[in-house]
Specification:
Layout (H helix, E strand, L loop, with lengths): L2 H8 E2 L1 H4 L8 E3 L9 H8 L7 E5 L14 H4 E5 L4 H9 L2 E3 L7 H6 L8 E6 L7 E3 L7 H6 L3 E6 L13 E3 L5 E4 L16 H11 L7 E4 L3 H12 L6 E7 L1 H8 L15 E6 L3 H7 L5 E3 L2 H4 L2 H4 L5 E6 L2 E3 L4 E2 L2 E2 L2 E2 L6 H10 L4 E5 L3 E3 L5 E3 L1 E2 L17 E4 L2 E4 L5 H10 L3 H13 L10
Parallel strand pairs: 1-10, 2-3, 2-6, 3-4, 4-5, 6-8, 8-10, 11-12, 11-15, 12-13, 13-14, 15-20, 16-23, 20-24
Antiparallel strand pairs: 7-9, 16-17, 18-19, 21-22, 24-25
Helix pairs in contact: 8-9, 9-10, 15-16
């Protein structure tokens, strides 16, 4: 039987395909732009027939239809591996939950059953190629592992999904697929690159760019500051750069178009831009489509500390919410309010340090203003009660604000306090010194 004939045999409607879902099932919605649309709507229509269906996914662009039905909590729960702004709101308005993970381990959760295997998988994919493969698009991530132990795998074909080339586990063959649905081909969800960089962003970016050598390999986190770093690199004289990252963002496209990226100095995967998933604007999806320079790979490869550390001059650049005087970094919550997730920050922070010539940077503005207009320091004596320690104090290397950069590796407690206070906003330094004294982290010989 040809692949085309098999395709016709497995082709069905979304309403028919979701009939395989049973009460009590775990259902996987894939990841990011791979989240199904037509299948989600069809499953929502079955709400009254189902109870206790647990859906897993991550980085949503809109609230799933299953969570918008009347009395959704009786029928469905949504469980996020990593949160977007949509999921952040869902935690307080719907029957949604966050699963704290180390992202590089996620494929193993499915394979060794630390997590309940999903019986049904529904993923939005690119059209089948001539060899019978459906590309996961820019979301290889953990989807290969998700499909391995599933009883039912339903793919929803979207003509707008880019065909993203990879090394392994970046696609699924028609022989492993239970059913095929052709959706309405909605445009992929977009994650704006953000507005123009602020003066603070530019100051932080310049301090980081000064540390980057020619031939470096870049990992950029999501957010204004990493994007500002990317923009500044695009305007700099740096050359022969490469990419090995968790998330592929628009800044990488700008760097490639500016001729800064060629991968020629990379120790492994030479000439390839490697990533676990991508999210951004249409510009990004168009760039990734059928581009042999870009390598979509599973997250247990991209985020593996052992892989990262093999790459010379690895530069890891990530955001944080706040940091305390011990050097503990919170990159995912405001007290008990979940903002994001650990993602791969721990792995890249450690992997960059282990790289020959590598450096990791945690960047942040020195202050933030709350809803009442009160200004607070992001450098705190201790993290707020309930805040999550994303990077433990031995892991933290460079910390950067608009007032400077410090390297905490190997510093004693009082040296760390002094270093961090030196890059805090001047309005908060005296109070932070008093706080450090109370914590017995300040010596009389320290600078003031």
């Amino acid at each position: 039987m040809s692949f085309e004939e098999e395709y016709k045999q497995k082709l069905t409607t979304a309403d028919e395909a979701v009939k395989c879902v049973r009460s009590g099932d775990w259902v996987d919605y894939g990841w990011c732009v791979g989240t199904p649309e037509a299948l989600d709507k069809a499953l929502a229509k079955r709400a009254d027939e189902l109870v206790d269906v647990n859906v897993r996914g991550g980085i949503l662009f809109h609230v799933p239809y299953i969570m918008q039905v009347p009395d959704a909590e009786k029928h469905f729960s949504y469980n996020s591996w990593h949160m977007s702004g949509v999921e952040r709101k869902m935690l307080t308005t719907t029957n949604a939950y966050f699963a704290p993970i180390k992202y590089s381990e996620l494929p193993s959760y499915y394979r060794i059953n630390n997590a309940t295997p999903s019986r049904v998988v529904m993923i939005q994919v690119a059209p089948m190629d001539k060899h019978g493969y459906f590309s996961f698009g820019p979301s290889a991530s953990h989807l290969g592992a998700v499909c391995e132990n599933a009883e039912e795998i339903i793919v929803e074909v979207n003509k707008n999904m880019p065909r993203c080339l990879g090394g392994h586990e970046s696609e699924i063959h028609i022989s492993k697929v239970s059913a095929i649905v052709e959706g309405d081909n909605p445009p992929l969800g977009e994650m704006p690159a953000g507005g123009p960089a602020s003066d603070v962003d530019k100051k932080v970016a310049q301090l980081i760019v000064d540390e980057i050598p020619n031939g470096a390999c870049l990992q950029l986190g999501i957010g204004g500051m990493p994007n500002a770093v990317g923009s500044l690199i695009a305007e700099s004289d740096l050359k022969d750069l490469s990419v090995h990252t968790e998330m592929y963002v628009d800044a990488f496209v700008d760097l490639a178009m500016a001729g800064k990226i060629n991968g020629s100095k990379k120790n492994i995967d030479r000439y390839r831009q490697v990533y676990a998933f991508g999210a951004g604007t249409k510009k990004l999806y168009d760039y990734l489509d059928d581009n042999p320079e870009c390598m979509s790979a599973p997250v247990d490869y991209t985020n593996d500390v052992r892989v990262i550390s093999q790459i010379d001059n690895f530069m890891s650049i990530n955001n944080a919410i706040d940091i305390d005087l011990y050097g503990q970094v919170n990159g995912e919550s405001a007290g008990t309010r979940q903002i994001s997730g650990a993602g791969g920050q721990q792995d890249f922070v450690q992997g960059a340090y282990l790289s020959n010539g590598g450096k990791s940077f945690i960047c942040m503005s020195s202050t933030f203003t709350d809803k009442k207009g009160v200004v607070h320091s992001r450098i705190r004596p201790t993290l707020a009660e309930g805040s999550i320690v994303t990077d433990t104090r031995p892991q933290t290397m460079y910390v950067v604000t608009e007032y400077g950069k410090v390297n905490l590796k190997g510093l004693s407690a009082w040296e760390r306090a002094e270093a961090l206070i030196s890059i805090a906003h001047p309005d908060f330094r005296d109070q932070l010194i008093k706080d450090a004294e109370k914590l017995r982290m300040w010596r009389t010989s320290n600078k003031r």
